[in-house]
Amino acid sequence: MKYWNLKKINKSALDKTGIIPRSISKLFEKFRKELDPNAEIEALEEFKVSRYQTVSSVKYLLFLLIMPILVNQLSKSFIFEPCVNYFWNDSDHGVFLNISQEERAFAELQRFEEKLHFDILVGKISNSSPYFIDNEIKQKALDLASKYALESSSAIKNILADLLSSAIFVSILTINKRQFSILKLFINQLIYGLSDTAKAFLIILLTDMFVGFHSPHGWEIIIEVILRHFGLPESRDFIFVFISTFPVILDTVFKYWIFRYLNRISPSAVATYHNMNE
């Protein structure tokens, strides 16, 4: 199977528009195949290649997704966690990696203190001695210090594990280029084989999800999670600048793809998209 020309089998999904409409050219191509004495053999070969392409693409895609995740989790648990914990506990370090962690810790401590005073005032806690209050606040501060020290060390582990898994991901793509080419052909065939309505629906869904009027709230949450994952400061200025620029760039890419590729390959899908979007 390694000598089969997979591009030839799947090139119909990516044919360029010529002088003759594609519907007419496909009609003549259909007649030519039906009159061809070797049509049955070619159809059987195309089926075998298509089945091989599908199975190979699914296996490669699963391997491409599972292997980096597996490497990430195993390396974090058995390699980076013992090393980081050893150096983190052995050296003299602060509790926080950035000012955002400090602000969150101080806010939690302040809320705890306010709740403690409120519970004393409403009678939920009978002991109102200064010693009891100071002891509770001190215990909460120690808990927060332990919590954010663990978060700081986890951020370092995340950086190291993510770098390793990214290197594994790139290595898989680089080493097995043929499988990656088969996967691209399979995805192209899958996307361009959809009906015009399905294509338009997916385009509207993706554009509204990532560049729609409500997308900034989602992007804000995603950026905050990513920054916290790597132990980076959650700068509001950076988040707002990202939200104001990246969706615009993404929207431009979507429109360029529609104009440059989809409009050439499937004009009816573009027309359906415009009708559904109005």
TrEMBL record:
<dbReference type="InterPro" id="IPR004282">
    <property type="entry name" value="CemA"/>
</dbReference>
<keyword id="KW-0812">Transmembrane</keyword>
<protein>
    <submittedName>
        <fullName>Chloroplast envelope membrane protein</fullName>
    </submittedName>
</protein>
<dbReference type="Pfam" id="PF03040">
    <property type="entry name" value="CemA"/>
</dbReference>
<comment type="similarity">
    <text>Belongs to the CemA family.</text>
</comment>
<keyword id="KW-1133">Transmembrane helix</keyword>
<keyword id="KW-0375">Hydrogen ion transport</keyword>
<dbReference type="GO" id="GO:0016020">
    <property type="term" value="C:membrane"/>
</dbReference>
<feature type="transmembrane region" description="Helical">
    <location>
        <begin position="185"/>
        <end position="206"/>
    </location>
</feature>
<keyword id="KW-0472">Membrane</keyword>
<dbReference type="GO" id="GO:1902600">
    <property type="term" value="P:proton transmembrane transport"/>
</dbReference>
<keyword id="KW-0934">Plastid</keyword>
<keyword id="KW-0813">Transport</keyword>
<feature type="transmembrane region" description="Helical">
    <location>
        <begin position="238"/>
        <end position="258"/>
    </location>
</feature>
<keyword id="KW-0406">Ion transport</keyword>
